[in-house]
Each structure stands twice: as C-alpha cells, then as structure tokens.
Specification:
binds alpha-L-arabinofuranose; alpha/beta; 6-stranded parallel β-sheet; 6-stranded mixed β-sheet
Length: about 300
C-alpha cells in the first residue's frame, strides 16, 4: 500500500521535492532537464535541490522538504548506503519517497514507494558481452583498464559487478587497472593518464560512463595512441558526444542508460498522490549501440 502525502505547501498543486546528485556528467544534465521540463508540463510544482555530489547535502535537502510538507519527495542517491534515518523521518511525516535513477541499500523497502531507473548490473553485463563477442576468435590475453564511477554509488558497484560476472568466465580477460574517476570528464582524463604511465599494454578501456570515456580519449590521444583502435573503448550512457566519438571511430560500443526519467516520474508522482499502488521497481528500456550504427543514430539522440 502507498502512503499518501498530506503536503500543504502548494495549495491544490502537487509539490514534488527533488534532490539531484549534482551536475557531474552530460547524462546528469539531461536527467535534470527531463525532470524540470516534465514537472512544468504536468503542472507539478518542483522544488529542485542540487547536492553537488555530497550525501550530506541530499540529507539536508530531504529534511527541508519534510519541513516544507511537500507532497512527494524524489531523489537520486549519490551513494547507496546511509539513508535509513532520513527516510524514516519522511515515512514518519507520511511523505512518500520515490527513488529515481539510483537505488539505496536499505533493508527496509517500506522506506520508499518505488524505484524508477536502469538495471545497472545488466548494463555491465551488456558491456562485457560486447567484449566477449569482439574477442571470440582469439585466445590472447585481453588487458582491461576500468574507470569506475563514484565510489559507493549504485551504478559504479553494479556496472563493475555485471561486467565482472561475464568476463570472469574466461581467464583471458584481465582487469589490470581499476580506479574511480567520479563520473567526470576531467577525472577520466587524469586517471587515464596515470593508467597509461603505469601500463603500456592496455587493450581495452571499460568506462562506467561517457564523460570518463571522453576524458580518457584525450589522454590516449595525447599519449600518441589511437582510441578505438590501439585501445578499444566500451562506454555507458549514450550521450550525443559519445555517439559522435563512436561515429569518429574513437569509441567502439556504447551501452545505453536512459536519463529521460522526468515524464515517468511525474506519472508516478500523480499516482502516489492519488493513493494508487505503484510497482515497487520500474526498469527503463535501453539498447546497445556499435560503431556501424553511430552515424545513423546520431541525429536521433536527444541528450
Ligand atoms: O546514475 C547514472 C550515472 O550517473 C550515469 O551513468 C552517469 O553519467 C551519471 O553521472
């Protein structure tokens, strides 16, 4: 059963408090725009707070939303752990919480109404499946460098897990370097520079998002190597910039992660306010794109 919010801050208009992770990536910018545009289109008053990648800012924002008696709280948790206390406060105030994009690891699933977002473990598997297929005719060792997302975040943990699950079946795949680059382009470049200084034999880069892959491309080119050829690149998200890099032959495959969650979030918000039950998990639909599809798909990319 769904708890119905009894917020009073917006008169008849539904008020949604949304705490966003930050603005670390092209994906995130598209996600924010989707939520803001969809709220306006749905006639929902959006109270938007940017946490600048800090959990303490998200906790503060959620407490402010509780004090303001918003009807519904939604947030994309920067990390998976450490939410039980504040979510319990929302529950005690009878304000329903919707998780978007990223999950929390709370054992008590009654602390939130639903979780809308991608299956990150499956994204990791899809990334690895491409690699298994691309190397199927060779028994040579494949040395992999991995740029992880924000430490402790659901996408970083799950994308690593799904990838490992698939490549773990064949000992020819070796992750020889793996470090966080916090989902940003600047860090992606910096960490890739360090990887290249320490390892001359990287065959494949697995980046947990496009921004890190695009930063790494700069580092690879500055090192006099050809991204997409000397080092094959697997990325996740599907931003226009990544599709352009794929069309240019610099990224080999992109596993899509859909940031356009706004319309569905508004639909769920209305359902929750109306007291209707919602599924506990709503998984977004996503594909996998390779270089041969990039040029044709580029004009259709909306983020
Ligand atoms: O949680 C989704 C991830 O967060 C996206 O893959 C990444 O680009 C973003 O920062």
């Amino acid at each position: 059963a769904t708890a119905v919010g009894c917020g009073s801050s917006g008169g008849d208009q539904t008020v949604l408090g949304f705490s966003q992770v930050g603005a670390e990536s092209g994906w995130r910018t598209a996600n924010t725009k989707s939520i803001q545009d969809a709220a306006a289109a749905a006639g929902i008053q959006l109270k938007f707070a940017d946490a600048q990648q800090k959990q303490e800012n998200q906790i503060k924002a959620i407490r402010t939303f509780i004090q303001q008696r918003v009807d519904v709280i939604a947030f994309s948790p920067v990390v998976a752990s450490g939410w039980d206390t504040v979510l319990k406060e929302a529950k005690d105030a009878k304000i329903p919480v919707i998780l978007t994009d990223r999950a929390v690891d709370s054992a008590d699933t009654s602390l939130y109404v639903t979780f809308l977002g991608s299956d990150f473990v499956e994204e990791g598997r899809r990334a690895a499946n491409w690699l298994v297929d691309a190397t199927k005719n060779s028994t040579d060792t494949v040395n992999i460098a991995e740029l992880q997302g924000t430490t402790g975040s659901a996408p970083a943990t799950d994308r690593k897990k799904g990838f490992q699950e698939v490549i773990g079946a064949d000992p020819k795949f070796k992750i020889i370097a793996s470090q966080t680059a916090e989902f940003t382009r600047a860090k992606g470049k910096e960490v890739m520079q360090a990887f290249l200084a320490a390892h001359r034999d990287i065959n494949v880069l697995y980046a947990h998002n496009d921004d890190m892959a695009l930063g790494a491309i700069q580092a690879i080119e500055e090192a006099g190597l050809k991204p997409g050829k000397d080092i094959k690149i697997i990325s996740i998200d599907g931003t226009r910039d990544a599709f352009q890099a794929m069309a240019d032959g610099k990224i080999n495959v992109v596993v899509e992660c859909n940031p356009l969650l706004g319309p569905k979030l508004m639909e769920i918000t209305k359902e929750v306010v109306a007291g209707h039950p919602t599924p506990k998990r709503i998984v977004t639909d996503e594909g996998v794109y390779t270089q041969d599809q990039a040029a044709a798909a580029l004009p259709t990319r909306t983020y």
